[in-house]
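ok so for the tutorial part 2 we go from a plain amino acid sequence to predicted C-alpha coordinates. step 1 is just haveing the sequence, like this:
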Amino acid sequence: MRTLSKSKLLAYRQCPKRVWLEVHQPELRQDSPESQQRFAAGHRVGAVAQRVYDPEGQGTLIDPKVIGYDEAFRLTQAHLASRQPLFEAAFQANGAFAMADVLLPDGDAWRMVEIKSATSVKDYHRDDVAVQAYVAKAAGVPISRVALGHIDSTWVYAGDDRYDGLFVEADLTDEARARESEVAAWVQDAQRIVAEPSASEVRTGRHCREPYECGFFAHCRSREPVPMHPAEWLPHPTKPLSHLIDVEGVTEMVQIPDEVLTERQRRVRDCTLSGEPFFDQEGARAALASHGLPAYFLDFETISHVVPVWKGFRPNQIAAFQFSVHRVGEDGAITNEGFLDLSGGDPSEACAAALVATCGSNGPVYVYNQAFEKRVLKELAERVPTHAEGLMRIHDRVVDLLPVARDHYYHPSQQGSWSIKVVLPAVFPELRYEDLDGVKDGGMAMAAYLEATDPKTTDERRAAIAAELTRYCALDTWATVKLWAFFLGRELQE
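step 2 — the prediction. this is what the C-alpha coordinates look like for a chain of 494 residues:
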Protein backbone atom coordinates (compact mmCIF):
# COMPACT_ATOMS: atom_id res chain seq x y z
CA MET A 1 0.00 0.00 0.00
CA ARG A 2 1.26 3.44 -0.93
CA THR A 3 1.42 6.29 1.52
CA LEU A 4 -0.57 9.13 -0.03
CA SER A 5 0.21 12.74 0.75
CA LYS A 6 -2.43 15.26 1.73
CA SER A 7 -2.09 16.93 -1.68
CA LYS A 8 -2.86 13.64 -3.42
CA LEU A 9 -5.89 13.06 -1.20
CA LEU A 10 -7.13 16.52 -2.11
CA ALA A 11 -6.45 15.70 -5.77
CA TYR A 12 -8.66 12.64 -5.27
CA ARG A 13 -11.36 14.91 -3.87
CA GLN A 14 -11.22 16.98 -7.06
CA CYS A 15 -11.13 14.04 -9.47
CA PRO A 16 -10.30 10.32 -9.08
CA LYS A 17 -8.46 10.35 -12.41
CA ARG A 18 -6.25 13.18 -11.20
CA VAL A 19 -4.95 11.27 -8.15
CA TRP A 20 -4.08 8.29 -10.36
CA LEU A 21 -2.16 10.56 -12.74
CA GLU A 22 -0.43 12.35 -9.85
CA VAL A 23 0.91 8.99 -8.64
CA HIS A 24 1.69 7.21 -11.91
CA GLN A 25 2.25 9.91 -14.57
CA PRO A 26 3.15 13.16 -12.82
CA GLU A 27 5.30 14.16 -15.80
CA LEU A 28 2.08 14.83 -17.75
CA ARG A 29 1.09 17.68 -15.44
CA GLN A 30 1.44 21.16 -16.92
CA ASP A 31 0.97 23.78 -14.25
CA SER A 32 -0.17 27.15 -15.59
CA PRO A 33 1.76 30.36 -14.80
CA GLU A 34 -1.15 31.31 -12.54
CA SER A 35 -0.77 28.04 -10.61
CA GLN A 36 2.97 28.58 -10.28
CA GLN A 37 2.38 32.10 -8.98
CA ARG A 38 -0.12 30.73 -6.46
CA PHE A 39 2.45 28.19 -5.25
CA ALA A 40 5.07 30.93 -4.91
CA ALA A 41 2.65 33.13 -2.96
CA GLY A 42 1.89 30.21 -0.67
CA HIS A 43 5.60 29.75 0.11
CA ARG A 44 5.93 33.47 0.89
CA VAL A 45 2.91 33.38 3.21
CA GLY A 46 4.26 30.28 4.93
CA ALA A 47 7.62 31.92 5.59
CA VAL A 48 5.94 34.97 7.12
CA ALA A 49 3.69 32.74 9.24
CA GLN A 50 6.76 31.17 10.82
CA ARG A 51 7.90 34.60 11.97
CA VAL A 52 4.44 35.56 13.23
CA TYR A 53 3.91 32.37 15.21
CA ASP A 54 7.47 32.14 16.47
CA PRO A 55 8.64 35.72 17.08
CA GLU A 56 11.50 34.58 19.33
CA GLY A 57 12.82 32.17 16.72
CA GLN A 58 12.76 29.20 19.10
CA GLY A 59 10.96 26.84 16.75
CA THR A 60 12.18 24.27 14.23
CA LEU A 61 11.50 24.08 10.50
CA ILE A 62 11.39 20.52 9.18
CA ASP A 63 11.92 20.57 5.41
CA PRO A 64 11.42 17.15 3.80
CA LYS A 65 12.47 18.52 0.41
CA VAL A 66 15.94 18.96 1.88
CA ILE A 67 16.25 16.07 4.31
CA GLY A 68 13.84 13.52 2.77
CA TYR A 69 10.52 12.31 4.11
CA ASP A 70 11.81 9.46 6.25
CA GLU A 71 14.12 11.83 8.07
CA ALA A 72 11.30 14.38 8.37
CA PHE A 73 9.07 11.82 10.07
CA ARG A 74 11.90 10.89 12.44
CA LEU A 75 12.81 14.49 13.28
CA THR A 76 9.17 15.37 13.91
CA GLN A 77 8.88 12.66 16.52
CA ALA A 78 12.18 13.71 18.09
CA HIS A 79 11.19 17.40 18.27
CA LEU A 80 7.75 16.76 19.72
CA ALA A 81 9.51 16.36 23.06
CA SER A 82 11.04 19.84 22.79
CA ARG A 83 7.72 21.62 23.35
CA GLN A 84 8.78 24.35 20.92
CA PRO A 85 6.94 25.52 17.77
CA LEU A 86 7.29 23.18 14.81
CA PHE A 87 6.83 24.11 11.17
CA GLU A 88 6.10 21.56 8.44
CA ALA A 89 5.99 18.79 11.03
CA ALA A 90 5.48 15.52 9.13
CA PHE A 91 3.22 12.63 10.18
CA GLN A 92 2.23 9.37 8.54
CA ALA A 93 -0.37 6.80 9.51
CA ASN A 94 -3.02 4.57 7.93
CA GLY A 95 -1.68 4.99 4.40
CA ALA A 96 -1.54 8.79 4.44
CA PHE A 97 0.91 11.50 5.40
CA ALA A 98 0.62 15.23 5.97
CA MET A 99 2.73 18.17 7.07
CA ALA A 100 1.39 20.70 9.55
CA ASP A 101 2.18 24.31 8.63
CA VAL A 102 2.26 25.37 12.27
CA LEU A 103 2.30 23.17 15.39
CA LEU A 104 2.31 25.02 18.71
CA PRO A 105 2.62 23.50 22.22
CA ASP A 106 -0.63 23.75 24.15
CA GLY A 107 -0.31 22.19 27.61
CA ASP A 108 0.27 18.49 27.10
CA ALA A 109 -1.06 18.66 23.55
CA TRP A 110 -0.49 20.69 20.39
CA ARG A 111 -2.44 23.38 18.58
CA MET A 112 -2.36 22.95 14.81
CA VAL A 113 -2.74 25.88 12.39
CA GLU A 114 -2.99 25.37 8.64
CA ILE A 115 -1.92 28.55 6.82
CA LYS A 116 -3.57 29.72 3.59
CA SER A 117 -2.94 32.72 1.37
CA ALA A 118 -6.68 33.19 0.80
CA THR A 119 -8.63 35.93 2.57
CA SER A 120 -11.48 33.68 3.70
CA VAL A 121 -12.20 30.04 4.52
CA LYS A 122 -13.13 27.99 1.45
CA ASP A 123 -14.85 24.59 1.42
CA TYR A 124 -11.69 22.91 0.12
CA HIS A 125 -9.75 24.43 3.01
CA ARG A 126 -12.03 22.50 5.34
CA ASP A 127 -11.09 19.27 3.55
CA ASP A 128 -7.44 20.22 3.94
CA VAL A 129 -7.75 20.77 7.69
CA ALA A 130 -9.76 17.58 8.13
CA VAL A 131 -6.97 15.54 6.50
CA GLN A 132 -4.29 17.23 8.63
CA ALA A 133 -6.15 16.54 11.85
CA TYR A 134 -6.95 12.93 10.90
CA VAL A 135 -3.34 12.02 10.04
CA ALA A 136 -1.90 13.74 13.11
CA LYS A 137 -4.31 11.94 15.41
CA ALA A 138 -3.74 8.60 13.70
CA ALA A 139 0.00 9.14 14.15
CA GLY A 140 -0.52 9.49 17.90
CA VAL A 141 -0.02 13.26 18.19
CA PRO A 142 -2.39 14.80 20.76
CA ILE A 143 -4.13 17.73 19.08
CA SER A 144 -6.00 20.18 21.32
CA ARG A 145 -7.28 22.60 18.66
CA VAL A 146 -7.20 22.86 14.89
CA ALA A 147 -7.46 26.18 13.10
CA LEU A 148 -7.17 27.58 9.62
CA GLY A 149 -5.14 30.78 9.45
CA HIS A 150 -5.99 33.01 6.51
CA ILE A 151 -5.07 36.51 5.42
CA ASP A 152 -6.94 39.49 6.90
CA SER A 153 -7.73 41.55 3.78
CA THR A 154 -8.21 44.73 5.85
CA TRP A 155 -4.82 44.57 7.53
CA VAL A 156 -2.38 47.36 6.64
CA TYR A 157 1.38 46.82 6.59
CA ALA A 158 3.15 49.15 9.02
CA GLY A 159 6.58 48.49 7.55
CA ASP A 160 9.81 47.25 9.13
CA ASP A 161 8.91 43.58 8.60
CA ARG A 162 6.13 43.76 11.22
CA TYR A 163 3.44 41.26 10.23
CA ASP A 164 1.57 40.77 13.50
CA GLY A 165 -2.14 40.71 12.76
CA LEU A 166 -1.77 39.56 9.16
CA PHE A 167 -3.51 36.24 9.90
CA VAL A 168 -7.03 35.57 11.13
CA GLU A 169 -7.78 32.13 12.57
CA ALA A 170 -10.96 30.13 12.07
CA ASP A 171 -11.37 27.36 14.63
CA LEU A 172 -12.31 24.13 12.82
CA THR A 173 -11.64 21.71 15.67
CA ASP A 174 -15.11 20.29 16.08
CA GLU A 175 -15.69 20.03 12.36
CA ALA A 176 -12.38 18.25 11.74
CA ARG A 177 -13.03 15.72 14.52
CA ALA A 178 -16.51 15.03 13.20
CA ARG A 179 -15.08 14.16 9.77
CA GLU A 180 -12.51 11.55 10.85
CA SER A 181 -14.44 8.59 9.47
CA GLU A 182 -15.11 10.54 6.27
CA VAL A 183 -11.40 11.20 5.78
CA ALA A 184 -10.59 7.55 6.49
CA ALA A 185 -12.98 6.61 3.68
CA TRP A 186 -11.21 9.05 1.33
CA VAL A 187 -7.87 7.41 2.08
CA GLN A 188 -9.27 3.95 1.49
CA ASP A 189 -10.94 4.90 -1.79
CA ALA A 190 -7.91 6.82 -3.05
CA GLN A 191 -5.70 3.83 -2.25
CA ARG A 192 -8.04 1.61 -4.28
CA ILE A 193 -7.91 4.02 -7.24
CA VAL A 194 -4.11 4.33 -7.37
CA ALA A 195 -3.79 0.54 -7.15
CA GLU A 196 -5.64 0.19 -10.47
CA PRO A 197 -3.49 -0.62 -13.52
CA SER A 198 -4.83 2.37 -15.44
CA ALA A 199 -6.69 5.61 -14.85
CA SER A 200 -10.45 5.61 -14.96
CA GLU A 201 -12.04 7.55 -17.79
CA VAL A 202 -13.46 10.80 -16.49
CA ARG A 203 -14.77 13.37 -18.94
CA THR A 204 -13.37 16.88 -18.61
CA GLY A 205 -15.72 19.45 -17.16
CA ARG A 206 -16.16 22.06 -14.48
CA HIS A 207 -14.32 19.90 -11.94
CA CYS A 208 -11.15 20.46 -13.98
CA ARG A 209 -11.22 24.12 -12.91
CA GLU A 210 -12.68 23.86 -9.40
CA PRO A 211 -11.41 24.44 -6.82
CA TYR A 212 -8.14 24.76 -8.77
CA GLU A 213 -7.18 24.44 -12.38
CA CYS A 214 -5.92 20.89 -12.86
CA GLY A 215 -2.49 20.57 -14.45
CA PHE A 216 -3.62 17.43 -16.28
CA PHE A 217 -6.41 19.20 -18.14
CA ALA A 218 -4.50 19.41 -21.43
CA HIS A 219 -3.62 15.71 -21.24
CA CYS A 220 -7.19 14.65 -20.51
CA ARG A 221 -8.66 16.94 -23.14
CA SER A 222 -6.25 15.60 -25.78
CA ARG A 223 -7.71 12.12 -25.30
CA GLU A 224 -11.29 13.22 -25.94
CA PRO A 225 -13.03 13.68 -29.29
CA VAL A 226 -12.58 17.25 -30.48
CA PRO A 227 -15.94 18.97 -31.04
CA MET A 228 -16.24 20.74 -34.38
CA HIS A 229 -17.99 23.70 -32.73
CA PRO A 230 -17.45 23.40 -28.95
CA ALA A 231 -20.44 24.31 -26.83
CA GLU A 232 -18.08 25.63 -24.16
CA TRP A 233 -17.31 28.59 -26.44
CA LEU A 234 -20.76 29.98 -25.70
CA PRO A 235 -20.05 32.91 -23.36
CA HIS A 236 -21.53 33.60 -19.93
CA PRO A 237 -23.45 30.32 -19.62
CA THR A 238 -26.74 30.40 -17.77
CA LYS A 239 -27.68 27.60 -15.35
CA PRO A 240 -29.66 25.66 -18.02
CA LEU A 241 -26.74 25.91 -20.44
CA SER A 242 -24.19 24.94 -17.78
CA HIS A 243 -26.33 21.91 -16.92
CA LEU A 244 -26.38 20.77 -20.54
CA ILE A 245 -22.59 21.12 -20.88
CA ASP A 246 -21.32 20.04 -17.46
CA VAL A 247 -23.94 17.48 -16.42
CA GLU A 248 -25.47 16.10 -19.60
CA GLY A 249 -22.21 16.20 -21.52
CA VAL A 250 -23.34 18.20 -24.54
CA THR A 251 -20.23 19.20 -26.49
CA GLU A 252 -21.49 20.70 -29.80
CA MET A 253 -23.16 24.07 -30.24
CA VAL A 254 -25.66 22.61 -32.67
CA GLN A 255 -26.97 20.37 -29.89
CA ILE A 256 -27.99 23.33 -27.73
CA PRO A 257 -31.69 24.29 -28.08
CA ASP A 258 -32.36 27.85 -29.17
CA GLU A 259 -34.55 28.61 -26.17
CA VAL A 260 -31.60 28.02 -23.79
CA LEU A 261 -29.42 30.67 -25.46
CA THR A 262 -29.22 34.40 -24.92
CA GLU A 263 -29.08 36.76 -27.89
CA ARG A 264 -25.30 37.10 -27.60
CA GLN A 265 -24.85 33.32 -27.33
CA ARG A 266 -26.97 32.82 -30.45
CA ARG A 267 -24.79 35.34 -32.25
CA VAL A 268 -21.66 33.43 -31.23
CA ARG A 269 -23.24 30.18 -32.36
CA ASP A 270 -24.37 31.54 -35.71
CA CYS A 271 -21.00 33.15 -36.48
CA THR A 272 -19.16 30.01 -35.46
CA LEU A 273 -21.32 27.74 -37.61
CA SER A 274 -21.26 30.03 -40.64
CA GLY A 275 -17.62 31.05 -40.31
CA GLU A 276 -18.67 34.66 -40.96
CA PRO A 277 -17.97 37.58 -38.62
CA PHE A 278 -20.63 39.92 -37.28
CA PHE A 279 -20.04 43.67 -37.36
CA ASP A 280 -22.65 46.30 -36.59
CA GLN A 281 -20.56 49.31 -37.58
CA GLU A 282 -23.43 51.78 -37.33
CA GLY A 283 -24.13 50.66 -33.78
CA ALA A 284 -20.45 50.82 -32.87
CA ARG A 285 -20.09 54.27 -34.41
CA ALA A 286 -23.16 55.53 -32.59
CA ALA A 287 -21.82 54.23 -29.25
CA LEU A 288 -18.67 56.37 -29.68
CA ALA A 289 -20.11 59.37 -31.54
CA SER A 290 -20.35 61.67 -28.52
CA HIS A 291 -16.62 61.49 -27.77
CA GLY A 292 -14.30 63.82 -29.62
CA LEU A 293 -10.61 64.64 -29.81
CA PRO A 294 -8.09 64.73 -28.32
CA ALA A 295 -8.46 61.11 -27.26
CA TYR A 296 -6.24 59.18 -24.89
CA PHE A 297 -5.77 55.41 -24.73
CA LEU A 298 -4.61 53.99 -21.41
CA ASP A 299 -3.38 50.66 -20.11
CA PHE A 300 -1.77 49.73 -16.78
CA GLU A 301 0.46 46.89 -15.71
CA THR A 302 0.21 46.14 -12.02
CA ILE A 303 1.68 44.02 -9.27
CA SER A 304 0.08 42.80 -6.08
CA HIS A 305 1.59 40.98 -3.13
CA VAL A 306 -0.35 38.64 -0.89
CA VAL A 307 2.04 39.70 1.84
CA PRO A 308 2.58 43.45 1.41
CA VAL A 309 6.15 44.64 0.93
CA TRP A 310 5.45 48.41 0.93
CA LYS A 311 4.30 50.40 3.94
CA GLY A 312 0.63 51.32 3.90
CA PHE A 313 -0.45 48.51 1.57
CA ARG A 314 -3.14 45.92 2.25
CA PRO A 315 -2.79 42.25 1.22
CA ASN A 316 -3.33 41.85 -2.53
CA GLN A 317 -3.63 45.61 -3.03
CA ILE A 318 -2.60 46.40 -6.59
CA ALA A 319 0.09 48.92 -7.49
CA ALA A 320 0.65 50.23 -10.99
CA PHE A 321 4.32 49.94 -11.94
CA GLN A 322 3.75 50.76 -15.63
CA PHE A 323 1.39 52.52 -17.97
CA SER A 324 1.21 53.32 -21.66
CA VAL A 325 -0.79 56.20 -23.13
CA HIS A 326 -1.41 56.74 -26.82
CA ARG A 327 -2.84 60.14 -27.75
CA VAL A 328 -4.75 61.05 -30.91
CA GLY A 329 -4.70 64.81 -31.24
CA GLU A 330 -7.31 67.06 -32.80
CA ASP A 331 -5.24 67.04 -35.97
CA GLY A 332 -5.13 63.22 -35.99
CA ALA A 333 -1.46 63.04 -34.98
CA ILE A 334 -0.63 60.03 -32.77
CA THR A 335 1.92 60.04 -29.96
CA ASN A 336 2.85 57.53 -27.27
CA GLU A 337 4.20 58.08 -23.76
CA GLY A 338 4.80 55.62 -20.97
CA PHE A 339 5.97 55.04 -17.44
CA LEU A 340 7.89 52.09 -16.00
CA ASP A 341 9.34 51.66 -12.51
CA LEU A 342 11.52 48.60 -11.91
CA SER A 343 13.26 49.98 -8.82
CA GLY A 344 11.46 47.59 -6.49
CA GLY A 345 10.14 50.46 -4.37
CA ASP A 346 6.57 51.70 -4.14
CA PRO A 347 5.90 53.13 -7.63
CA SER A 348 2.65 54.88 -6.70
CA GLU A 349 3.72 58.52 -6.36
CA ALA A 350 5.89 58.62 -9.47
CA CYS A 351 3.23 56.77 -11.47
CA ALA A 352 0.47 59.16 -10.35
CA ALA A 353 2.49 62.27 -11.18
CA ALA A 354 3.45 60.95 -14.63
CA LEU A 355 -0.09 59.87 -15.45
CA VAL A 356 -1.69 63.20 -14.53
CA ALA A 357 0.92 65.00 -16.64
CA THR A 358 0.41 62.66 -19.60
CA CYS A 359 -3.41 62.51 -19.81
CA GLY A 360 -4.11 66.23 -20.11
CA SER A 361 -7.25 67.88 -18.79
CA ASN A 362 -9.87 67.02 -21.39
CA GLY A 363 -10.86 64.37 -23.88
CA PRO A 364 -12.00 60.76 -23.45
CA VAL A 365 -9.63 58.24 -21.93
CA TYR A 366 -10.30 54.97 -23.74
CA VAL A 367 -9.61 51.66 -22.06
CA TYR A 368 -10.52 48.06 -22.74
CA ASN A 369 -12.38 46.67 -19.71
CA GLN A 370 -12.85 49.70 -17.52
CA ALA A 371 -13.41 47.81 -14.27
CA PHE A 372 -9.71 47.17 -13.99
CA GLU A 373 -8.40 50.59 -15.03
CA LYS A 374 -10.93 52.41 -12.86
CA ARG A 375 -9.95 50.27 -9.88
CA VAL A 376 -6.28 51.11 -10.45
CA LEU A 377 -7.08 54.83 -10.70
CA LYS A 378 -9.16 54.80 -7.51
CA GLU A 379 -6.54 52.93 -5.51
CA LEU A 380 -3.81 55.16 -6.88
CA ALA A 381 -5.80 58.22 -5.81
CA GLU A 382 -6.11 56.76 -2.31
CA ARG A 383 -2.40 56.09 -2.18
CA VAL A 384 -1.32 59.50 -3.51
CA PRO A 385 -3.67 62.19 -2.15
CA THR A 386 -1.58 64.99 -3.68
CA HIS A 387 -2.67 63.80 -7.13
CA ALA A 388 -6.07 62.39 -6.14
CA GLU A 389 -8.05 65.16 -7.84
CA GLY A 390 -6.23 64.78 -11.15
CA LEU A 391 -6.46 60.99 -11.03
CA MET A 392 -10.20 61.03 -10.36
CA ARG A 393 -10.72 63.44 -13.26
CA ILE A 394 -9.02 60.86 -15.47
CA HIS A 395 -11.24 58.21 -13.86
CA ASP A 396 -14.36 60.18 -14.77
CA ARG A 397 -13.21 60.54 -18.40
CA VAL A 398 -12.82 56.80 -18.95
CA VAL A 399 -14.69 55.29 -21.89
CA ASP A 400 -14.79 51.50 -22.17
CA LEU A 401 -14.36 49.87 -25.58
CA LEU A 402 -15.13 46.36 -24.30
CA PRO A 403 -18.95 46.71 -24.38
CA VAL A 404 -18.69 48.27 -27.84
CA ALA A 405 -16.81 45.19 -29.04
CA ARG A 406 -19.12 42.81 -27.17
CA ASP A 407 -22.32 44.38 -28.52
CA HIS A 408 -21.27 45.12 -32.06
CA TYR A 409 -18.52 42.75 -33.17
CA TYR A 410 -17.76 39.05 -33.19
CA HIS A 411 -15.37 36.91 -35.22
CA PRO A 412 -15.42 33.07 -35.19
CA SER A 413 -11.74 33.03 -34.17
CA GLN A 414 -12.64 34.63 -30.83
CA GLN A 415 -13.99 31.30 -29.52
CA GLY A 416 -16.45 33.00 -27.20
CA SER A 417 -13.97 35.51 -25.77
CA TRP A 418 -13.80 39.29 -26.08
CA SER A 419 -10.36 39.60 -24.57
CA ILE A 420 -8.39 42.24 -26.43
CA LYS A 421 -5.79 39.57 -27.10
CA VAL A 422 -8.25 37.64 -29.28
CA VAL A 423 -10.26 40.57 -30.69
CA LEU A 424 -7.18 42.41 -31.96
CA PRO A 425 -5.85 39.62 -34.25
CA ALA A 426 -9.42 38.86 -35.34
CA VAL A 427 -9.76 42.40 -36.71
CA PHE A 428 -6.08 42.97 -37.58
CA PRO A 429 -4.40 39.61 -38.24
CA GLU A 430 -1.02 41.31 -38.58
CA LEU A 431 -1.14 42.40 -34.92
CA ARG A 432 -0.63 39.44 -32.63
CA TYR A 433 0.52 39.30 -29.03
CA GLU A 434 2.10 35.93 -29.81
CA ASP A 435 4.60 37.71 -32.04
CA LEU A 436 6.05 39.71 -29.14
CA ASP A 437 9.40 38.70 -27.72
CA GLY A 438 9.20 37.87 -24.02
CA VAL A 439 6.18 39.34 -22.25
CA LYS A 440 2.90 38.48 -24.00
CA ASP A 441 0.22 38.84 -21.31
CA GLY A 442 -0.52 40.33 -17.90
CA GLY A 443 0.62 37.26 -15.97
CA MET A 444 3.95 37.30 -17.77
CA ALA A 445 4.22 41.04 -17.08
CA MET A 446 3.89 40.44 -13.34
CA ALA A 447 6.44 37.65 -13.47
CA ALA A 448 8.78 39.91 -15.44
CA TYR A 449 8.40 42.66 -12.83
CA LEU A 450 9.29 40.26 -10.02
CA GLU A 451 12.34 39.06 -11.93
CA ALA A 452 13.46 42.60 -12.76
CA THR A 453 13.16 43.75 -9.14
CA ASP A 454 15.02 40.74 -7.78
CA PRO A 455 18.44 41.94 -6.52
CA LYS A 456 20.06 38.91 -8.16
CA THR A 457 18.94 40.02 -11.64
CA THR A 458 21.75 41.50 -13.74
CA ASP A 459 21.56 45.02 -15.19
CA GLU A 460 21.63 43.55 -18.69
CA ARG A 461 18.71 41.25 -18.00
CA ARG A 462 16.80 44.06 -16.27
CA ALA A 463 17.22 46.26 -19.36
CA ALA A 464 15.94 43.44 -21.57
CA ILE A 465 12.89 43.00 -19.33
CA ALA A 466 12.22 46.75 -19.44
CA ALA A 467 12.23 46.64 -23.24
CA GLU A 468 9.85 43.66 -23.27
CA LEU A 469 7.44 45.36 -20.87
CA THR A 470 7.53 48.58 -22.85
CA ARG A 471 6.67 46.82 -26.11
CA TYR A 472 3.91 44.79 -24.48
CA CYS A 473 2.17 47.66 -22.71
CA ALA A 474 2.43 49.90 -25.79
CA LEU A 475 0.80 47.18 -27.88
CA ASP A 476 -2.14 47.13 -25.46
CA THR A 477 -2.81 50.83 -26.01
CA TRP A 478 -2.05 50.71 -29.74
CA ALA A 479 -4.56 47.86 -29.99
CA THR A 480 -7.14 50.08 -28.30
CA VAL A 481 -6.39 52.87 -30.79
CA LYS A 482 -6.78 50.48 -33.73
CA LEU A 483 -10.07 49.06 -32.46
CA TRP A 484 -11.43 52.56 -31.74
CA ALA A 485 -10.65 53.63 -35.29
CA PHE A 486 -12.11 50.41 -36.69
CA PHE A 487 -15.38 50.88 -34.82
CA LEU A 488 -15.62 54.48 -36.05
CA GLY A 489 -14.54 53.69 -39.61
CA ARG A 490 -11.73 56.20 -39.19
CA GLU A 491 -8.38 56.26 -40.97
CA LEU A 492 -5.32 56.62 -38.75
CA GLN A 493 -2.16 58.61 -39.37
CA GLU A 494 0.26 55.74 -38.82
